[in-house]
Specification:
The chain is mainly α and 110 residues long. It folds into two domains: 52 residues, no CATH class; 41 residues, no CATH class. The protein is globular and about 40 Å long. The structure holds iron/sulfur cluster.
Length: 110
Amino acid sequence: MKRLSTEEMAEKKRLREDSVKNFIKSDKRRGSFLAAIPKGFQWLFYQVYAGKIKSPTKAIRAKCIDCSCWQRDEVEKCMAVTCPLYDFRPYQEKDKPFKQDTPLEETKDL
Ligand code: SF4
């Protein structure tokens, strides 16, 4: 994947912020919610609301992060095993990369 220059990253960020702002102005039902959530999650919710996703993965991430009061650690520690999204929630232990000091023998069955 091509690495973006600082200017390209700034432009991408500006375009994303404009998309979110335009959505907030244009969608009365979801716009006020989108405006009120933490900025770091607005792009994720915008993508879901605007139909920019091709699978439910981001929608599940959005629901879980909302459910956990915007705390990723709380999604990871979620104990609501009866929730239909439980097995699909993001930030699970299995998603973490191996620890650097894990001996190779301990990783072969994983
Ligand atoms: S899996 Fe846990 S964090 Fe995700 S929606 Fe269900 S209860 Fe909330």
